[in-house]
């Protein structure tokens, strides 16, 4: 079904408005408001989800469950991109089709598509293709968009993907191509309904087994569950997961990684107040995927290892002029996880360098060794020499994950460090800065905004603010 690329941008119109959900902006907003008012609340203390599994039937049937899925997005969440994976109900074709001709439209307005990334994926990965027809006649992606618009407004870029394959190997290839984008700055939405057309109670049973297999985060377990459901010969069961290829792709992305799947809400079409027929139903689950949370602490053994590795890296660099290859972790805990770190170098009690970074793609073990060398070479200070090593003292600050805040009142001086970001400008202060300077909260923010981020004294007022905590130790 590969077609010629369109020369001019062509938006994807809301083909299923008035069929699966209201066609007028006012009616759609009203229905979404009611659905979210009755949706399952986010789990307390959770970070924003990395992925959601949401149904795609008409809103009168699956709307309450879909709203519960999207309601797991916290009010202050920000996502750079939203990837929607939906399995085609109309066509069978190789791989997956990425819409890159223009934007998607709904009665609530346009959803901007990241056409540049879409074209990059198509050109670099044979498993993707340009195939606008696959999108034109598919409802399962479109119906997710109003929920996203309600929660996120227009502050995200969309990557719309329709899977045409029914081959697990191709799902694995799609997952391999998309895995680099499965990060906290992006959201993945997987569109699927569960069992189709069994009786009410059979659906509840089948759908729970399928949901448990998904939550195992094991692709083989999901495929096994689908096969076992088929072998049970349940009356009128056509499929137990219509979007199984999209869900399988997600599991190929998340398998063997530290993610937690959470069951949020379940209903089936028999629960619909207006049209509930319990003889032949379709099942709907809302599931969410979060990064596993670990208690933020650094043991005495881990502190000792971090100090030794930082000191060894600096010594090797000062004596040879070369960066050493990071030595592997010796302890099984936080050194093996992604965590930010700052290293400060003191000589006879005088600061001679301070460099750090937030968690990106490196584990703490590797990042601390790299930051130690950078701190020893901090251009703002006189360079250290090998002869300084006996008098050198290190201070290491291991950072907790960043937490976005909506008010400076959430900052606790002495406990929280701050990270200020606006556009390409950013700046940070560690928690101990407020203690050492005696600054007020306003001074803490003002100095960071002006001196670190380059935004001016009051620039923080229009920037995005984050807090973090730090475990600080010397040696």
UniProtKB/TrEMBL annotation:
A Pfam family that the UniProt record links to this protein: Memo
UniProt xrefs under CDD domains: MEMO_like
PROSITE patterns: AMMECR1
InterPro entries found in the cross-reference section: AMMECR1, AMMECR1_dom_sf, AMMECR1_domain, AMMECR1_N, AmmeMemoSam_A, MEMO1_fam
Annotated ranges, domain AMMECR1: 301-475
Lineage: superkingdom: Bacteria
Family label: Belongs to the MEMO1 family.
Protein name from the UniProt record: MEMO1 family protein D1164_08020
Source species of the chain: Mariniphaga sediminis
Encoding gene, per UniProt annotation: amrB
């Amino acid at each position: 079904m590969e077609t010629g690329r369109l020369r001019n941008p062509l938006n994807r119109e809301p083909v299923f408005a008035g069929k699966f959900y209201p066609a007028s902006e006012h009616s759609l907003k009203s229905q979404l408001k009611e659905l979210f008012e009755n949706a399952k609340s986010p789990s307390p203390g959770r970070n924003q989800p990395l992925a959601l599994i949401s149904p795609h039937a008409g809103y009168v049937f699956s709307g309450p469950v879909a709203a519960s899925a999207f309601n797991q997005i916290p009010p202050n969440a920000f996502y750079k991109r939203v990837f929607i994976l939906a399995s085609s109900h109309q066509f069978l074709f190789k791989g997956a089709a990425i819409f890159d001709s223009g934007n998607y439209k709904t009665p609530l307005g346009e959803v901007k598509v990241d056409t540049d990334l879409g074209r990059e994926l198509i050109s670099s990965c044979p498993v993707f293709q340009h195939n606008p027809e696959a999108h034109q006649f598919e409802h399962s992606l479109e119906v997710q968009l109003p929920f996203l618009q309600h929660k996120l407004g227009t502050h995200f870029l969309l990557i719309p993907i329709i899977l045409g394959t029914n081959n697990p190997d191709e799902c694995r290839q799609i997952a391999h191509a998309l895995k680099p984008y499965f990060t906290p700055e992006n959201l993945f939405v997987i569109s699927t309904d569960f069992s189709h057309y069994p009786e009410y109670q059979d659906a509840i049973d089948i759908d729970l087994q399928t949901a448990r297999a998904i939550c195992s985060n094991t692709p083989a377990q999901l495929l096994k569950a689908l096969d076992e459901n088929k072998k049970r010969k349940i009356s009128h069961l056509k499929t137990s997961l219509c979007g199984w290829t999209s869900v399988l792709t997600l599991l190929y992305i998340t398998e063997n990684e530290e993610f937690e799947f959470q069951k949020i809400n379940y209903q089936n079409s028999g629960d619909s107040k207006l049209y509930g027929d319990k003889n032949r139903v379709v099942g709907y689950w809302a599931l969410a995927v979060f990064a596993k949370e670990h208690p933020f602490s650094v043991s005495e053994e881990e502190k000792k290892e971090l100090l030794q590795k930082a000191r060894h890296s600096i010594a090797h660099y000062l004596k040879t002029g070369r960066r050493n290859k990071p030595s592997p972790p010796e302890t099984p805990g936080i050194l093996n996880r992604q965590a930010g770190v700052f290293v400060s170098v003191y000589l006879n009690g005088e600061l001679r360098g301070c460099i750090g970074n937030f968690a990106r793609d490196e584990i703490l073990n590797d990042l601390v060794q790299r930051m130690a060398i950078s701190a020893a070479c901090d251009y703002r200070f006189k360079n250290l020499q090998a002869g300084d090593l006996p008098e050198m003292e290190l201070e290491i600050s291991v950072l907790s994950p960043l937490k976005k805040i909506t008010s400076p009142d959430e900052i606790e001086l002495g406990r929280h460090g701050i990270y200020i970001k606006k556009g390409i400008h950013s700046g940070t202060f560690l928690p101990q800065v407020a203690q050492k300077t005696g600054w007020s909260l306003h001074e803490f923010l003002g100095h960071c905004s002006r001196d670190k981020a380059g935004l001016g004294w009051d620039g923080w007022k229009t920037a995005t603010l984050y807090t973090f905590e730090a475990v600080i130790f010397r040696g």
